[in-house]
Structure of DNA-binding response regulator:
Amino acid sequence: MSGRTGGTGSTPDASRAEHIRVLIVDDHPVVRRGLRAMVDDLPDVEAAGEAADGAAALRLLDAGTRPDVVLMDLQMGDGMHGVEATRRITALPSPPAVLILTTYSTDADILAAVEAGATGYLLKDAPPEEVAAAVHAAARGETVLAPPVAARLLGRVRAGGRPALTQRETEILGLVAEGLANKQISRRLFISEATVKTHLVHIYGKLGVDSRTAAIAAGLAAGLIRAV
Amino acid sequence: MSGRTGGTGSTPDASRAEHIRVLIVDDHPVVRRGLRAMVDDLPDVEAAGEAADGAAALRLLDAGTRPDVVLMDLQMGDGMHGVEATRRITALPSPPAVLILTTYSTDADILAAVEAGATGYLLKDAPPEEVAAAVHAAARGETVLAPPVAARLLGRVRAGGRPALTQRETEILGLVAEGLANKQISRRLFISEATVKTHLVHIYGKLGVDSRTAAIAAGLAAGLIRAV
DNA sequence: CCCGCCCTCAACCGTTCGATTGATTTTCGG
DNA sequence: CCGAAAATCAATCGAACGGTTGAGGGCGGG
């Protein structure tokens, strides 16, 4: 184990700290500036640093920056994607809480982020109070989900969740969205073209559409696939 | 905030002003905060107000707010879209300069914004200095385009520009991406299905693809259309 | 143990799509 | 004024797609 704190679990020396230290990770200077201003507005929170992408954030953490909370965007143009960065950060010894703060709420992103160990998931259109509350909650180790995100997760778990494609179906829908024809998909996945068509029929039924292009649109709208 | 001006409204007393007054329009509180912080950092610029969507911005302008520059996002979830807001603002008497500051640079958006009378087009990943320079330039009435945007526009005008769809073609590609069939598109645009197919053939040729799904993928990748 | 779900494959058939060829009108710029 | 580009429409034909029906193997829960 590492480090200096006894491995008692959650809050080590930060327990007595009034100061919550926040590391801001976003590729947009404007957003970083806004988050820092918001954070600095809170009396018991301070910005511990800024990074423009996941790699820079990891460098800061390696260099000794010890935030309690990492505010991270998911979509970051060039650099490391937020999900990967989250995975690596939560794999560190005594990791900070990772609070995802991003623009869109697509199923794939949310699941991937939670799976990677994110503590919470906020949307950028959240009001300042919500961001503040989320930072405090994350510092206490609690999980925070923006209402739309929570609803989406629940709707997925819930029994009635129609818009739940199987893994194979999602995979095929993704290839369709890349512009591949059925025959190409069949070769790519080592299955027959008939099987591809069967999957597509199921996909159409679940999405309530009747063509591959409409399936792409519906899949994008439902957050099942993501446009690069 | 805006305090009082002479009350005369359109009087050119702002001409001698050192102060550039900026109205910030964005649906994300975080971004508004960041822009305001950036603007307030500049000695000769001040924020004249904030609005969460185009309608709110127009209300502020109606109520007497007289900014020199409007910093406006294009994508605004619920409210009026930025292009429409730009159109209405530039239609006002002695309108302020409208500087678009948005996340993505898709051809359709850029052209629509310029057509609506936007003075400039910046991307949110622009560094603060670029934003500052653009605000100053916009206040002087100059046109400012972020390099990627300028390149895209030039590539469109330039003769060799392969990825330059015509307006009609872009429109049709957008409808294809919404999942519409040729017949539906023809009805939507009040043209024959044959015409739709002709346009599609041209689109495929320009994008180097041979199916509508591949055209969607290529169009998204090239920034010709945008996934909602 | 059986039922249901997922993944796999097959054959048939009607519709849509993509490619080709050819034509008219308008508009814009040399 | 004339040529180029854009937008419109038509007809044809083979290929791809979408809908249907049917079926078999694997896997987990009741």
Remarks:
- Residues 1-16, 157-163 of chain A have pLDDT under 50 and may be disordered.
- The interface with chain B takes residues 27-38, 77, 101, 103, 124-128, 131, 176-181, 209, 211-218, 220-221, 227-228 of chain A (CB under 8 Å).
